[in-house]
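Lecture notes, part 5. Sequence design as translation. It can be helpful to think of inverse folding as translation between two languages: the language of shapes and the language of residues. The source text, in structure tokens, appears below.
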């Protein structure tokens, strides 16, 4: 059943929603990307970092996924990201997703040392990317 962003409070479990709202208020939602207008990805800091993936159309969440082991559906990490999207998505820089799927497929075959090389190479030429990496890793080494 879809979750409507404007009805988040009435369409989710209260205990889990409040925990997700706390995560959102504490600034634990990091690295939020709108990939193609429908697909979203984010990292939520908890005991471990959790990756949240969402499909949202017309303010309705059609699919959500988190790599945590929480039994609640949706989990607190998904809810934290939904609060972020509802309240702060307008702040996100618009991205060009041209070639995203092709790149996603291609990098899945690269060994870790090549990925590290590419990340470091790009970090040397992009101040914005360096800042992103520093922000992502500042609360502990990943």
């Amino acid at each position: 059943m879809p979750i409507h962003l404007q009805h988040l409070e009435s369409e989710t479990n209260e205990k889990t929603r409040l925990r997700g709202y706390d995560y959102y208020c504490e600034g634990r939602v990091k690295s939020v990307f709108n990939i193609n207008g429908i697909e979203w990805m984010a990292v939520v800091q908890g005991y471990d970092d959790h990756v949240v993936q969402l499909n949202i159309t017309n303010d309705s969440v059609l699919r959500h996924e988190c790599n945590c082991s929480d039994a609640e559906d949706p989990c607190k990490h998904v809810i934290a990201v939904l609060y972020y999207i509802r309240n702060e998505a307008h702040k996100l820089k618009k991205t060009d997703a041209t070639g995203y799927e092709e790149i996603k497929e291609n990098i899945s075959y690269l060994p870790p040392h090549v990925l590290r090389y590419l990340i470091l190479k790009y970090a040397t030429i992009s101040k914005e990317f360096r800042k992103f990496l520093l922000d992502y890793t500042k609360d502990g080494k990943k």
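The translated text above is only one of many valid answers, since several sequences can fold into similar shapes. Helices lie at 14-25, 76-88, 100-107, 112-125, 127-137.
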